[in-house]
Amino acid sequence: MTKLKPLLVGLVGAGVLAASGYGLYTIGMQRGMGMATSSAPSAGAAATGSVAPGAVPQSVAEGEDATRRHIEKGIKAGDVDPTTGRKILYYHDPMVPGNKFDKPGKSPFMDMMMVPVYADGDAGSDGSKVTVSPRIQQNLGVRTAEVTEGLLSQQVSAVGNIAFNERDQAFVQARATGYIERLHVRATLDRVSKGQALADLYVPDWIAAQEEFLSVRRMQGTDLAPLVDGARQRMRQVGMSDEQIRLVESSGKTQARITLTAPIGGVVVELMAREGMTVMPGATLFRINGLGSVWANAEVPESQAALIRPGTKVQTSSAAAPGTALRGTVQAILPEVSAATRTLKARVELANPGNLLVPGMFVNMQFMDMRTEKSLLIPTEAVIQTGKRVVVMLAEDKGKFRPVEVETGIESNGQTEIKRGLQMGQRVVVSSQFLIDSEASLKGVEARLNDAPKPSAANTAPRHEGEARIEAIGKDSITLSHGPIPSLKWGEMTMDFKLPASSQPRNLVPGDKVSFEFYMDAEGLPQLTRVSAMAPEPKAVTAKPAGSKP
Length: 550
Hints:
Helix content is 21%, strand content 35%. It has helices at residues 4-48, 60-73, 134-140, 205-218, 225-237, 242-251, 433-442, 457-460, and strands at residues 88-93, 96-101, 115-118, 130-131, 144-146, 148-150, 154-164, 169-173, 178-183, 191-192, 197-202, 257-261, 266-271, 278-279, 284-289, 293-301, 313-318, 321-337, 343-351, 362-369, 375-379, 384-385, 390-395, 400-405, 407-412, 415-420, 427-429, 464-473, 477-482, 493-498, 513-520, 526-533.
């Protein structure tokens, strides 16, 4: 008995659990049936036409119900749905949206009813736009940007090598035979400032000329001025400067030594003097190069050389001066092309504040073609290259989008110049363009990015003729019930035609029979070129009985 007690307890527990599970299942089924029952009237309401006016079918089931309603009431494309209050453009199969039909019915492709597409609905009134609801736009991450007007500079990037500015050089030479007694600068690439002492020279030849000058000045008598001038000229002949001559005149003592100073500030790039050396007149002792400005020699690709010319503005940056933008101008395009790299050398003169740049450094250079005229600009990411054309997705009011073919110009700093196709103030899509294109494909809308551009139909499109009866005349369109159009393989249907822009039909009213000519415009819509009234059919004449009075 003790062994059977646990077994009995387990069986009782299992039974309790089974009973509770069955109870929960029953309650769930009852609630589910209740929900199904409560939802049934809404479906029935849709089938019976209780949808609020202006509503557009949001699902395939509602679209099929609308098609059945149209079949019952004899409604077709071009009519106004009394339930929604919207004009029916056409019918299509949502699974094969590219095919359009003017009458409701069962899909020839799938075992389902076709659904209507309304004007001002998801497909747009002209079939060239796609509408995306704000909720879907948020889910897709659609971002737009405004078409702006501004200046855009075409940029060419290159790497430049810093070199000395050879136009900022100075040479220090010996003007007389002498001896170097002391050097103040002993190594190349030493920095010197303007007026700094470089070397002390002892010049024996100066002593005799100076003694002669001083002796003439000490002489007593008249008419000694020519002698004094002659002695002064002999001091100039031995290499003394005017400043040194004035020093001899003011002090009255001979000056056998001279201190050579730096004429400019910079770097000693050449040193050919040592203490104790004998120097000859004209010998170069020092070569100094300034650092106030430097050259940046940039290797520019041959294909981009046409974008650079003397005077072009240049902006550079260097790792040696982080955060500092140095500006300069192109001095010259050297007439030499590297056979190995096919590049030209552009010489750029850069200001060098604080002597930050020294020869041998590399700098990143941006050549900017500064333009004076403004142009339309959009973000570069909004431009789509399809391979056949360049398009952008234009955002319009009420969530509508359509592709627009554009002509682009230069590109710089994430902006692209637009030469044709857009206007300032319009908005273009900069993200999720291909998702919108997919939405257009699913809805059978002709607003496709990859659609080939349609030529100007006004001059090149073939003409088509037909006969019809006028149903209605609007401001920009006319509704015709026409017969078959063999050239387009169209059957009988009632549809809208765009009226000619130049000549509006006159003396025509609904009910008149007309002959017309049209072509398909760039948007794929029928554009009338001619519409004229047809002559009334002659009435049949009945034969009068013989012998009757006239």
